């Protein structure tokens, strides 16, 4: 059985992007980028919302596979190799090793979790909140940058209430601290609905 992990870079004040959709977080370099490359290689499948998928399609470009930076080439290769399911009601075309899904994200995640092994990565705060309300996320990984954005899109969706148990912390390069948590109660919440 697979584990579903929600993993994102975040500011100290809990935002994954700043006001107006600006990312606002430092770009991972060298050692930190290698950490994310390793995480991508461990991922058996990526579940994405449309906005996160659109942002990550940068890595589908053939130029990423031939980039001068070896760390970027390595990530591009891992991204392209990993199967992706993209939840969207409007997206018609997806890139390499990806398939669009208009169906129920909860049902797809449950089925995938039961039928595969390894880690399933969730990309996107709205999709993660939907799966969290359904009790499907096994681990939360917050990569906290020493930056304050002052607003924007939060890692945890407004109105989402969770009990969490610490699994550990790790100091990484660029001043980033990885905080890992597991939900205490995996019982589905009422009114979960992903749009």
Structural overview:
The chain is an alpha/beta fold and 195 residues long. It has one domain (3-175): 3-Layer(aba) Sandwich (Dihydrofolate Reductase, subunit A). 29% of the residues lie in helices and 28% in strands. It is built from six helices and ten strands; from the N terminus they run ββαβαααββαβαββββ. Strands 5-4-3-6-1-7-10-9 form an eight-stranded mixed sheet. The chain has a two-stranded antiparallel ribbon with strand order 2-8. A hairpin with a 5-residue loop joins strand 9 and strand 10. Helix 1 runs parallel beside helix 4. The chain is globular, with a radius of gyration of 16 Å. 28% of the residues are buried. InterPro entries: DHFR-like_dom_sf, RibDG_C, Riboflavin_Biosynth_HTPR. Residues 4-177 form the Bacterial bifunctional deaminase-reductase C-terminal domain. It holds the Pfam family RibD_C. This is Dihydrofolate reductase family protein.
Quick gist of this model?
The chain is an alpha/beta fold and 195 residues long. It has six helices and ten strands.
List the main descriptive attributes of the protein structure presented here.
about 200 residues; two-stranded antiparallel sheet; about 30% helix; 8-stranded mixed sheet; 10 strands; globular; Dihydrofolate Reductase, subunit A
């Amino acid at each position: 059985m697979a584990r579903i992990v929600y993993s994102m870079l975040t500011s100290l004040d809990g935002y994954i992007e700043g006001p107006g959709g600006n990312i606002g977080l430092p770009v991972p370099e060298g050692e930190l980028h290698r950490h994310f490359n390793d995480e991508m290689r461990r991922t058996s499948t990526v579940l994405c919302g449309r906005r996160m998928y659109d942002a990550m399609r940068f890595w589908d470009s053939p130029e990423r596979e031939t980039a001068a930076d070896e760390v970027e080439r390595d990530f591009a290769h891992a991204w392209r190799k990993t199967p992706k399911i993209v939840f969207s009601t409007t997206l018609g075309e997806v890139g390499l090793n990806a398939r669009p899904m208009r169906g129920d994200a909860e049902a797809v995640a449950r089925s995938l979790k039961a039928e595969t092994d390894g880690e399933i990565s969730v990309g996107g705060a709205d999709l993660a909140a939907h799966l969290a309300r359904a009790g499907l996320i096994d681990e939360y990984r917050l990569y906290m940058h020493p930056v304050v954005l002052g607003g924007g899109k939060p890692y945890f969706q407004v109105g989402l209430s969770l009990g969490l148990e610490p699994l550990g912390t790790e100091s990484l390069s660029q001043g980033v601290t990885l905080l890992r948590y597991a939900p205490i109660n995996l019982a589905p919440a009422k009114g979960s609905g992903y749009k």
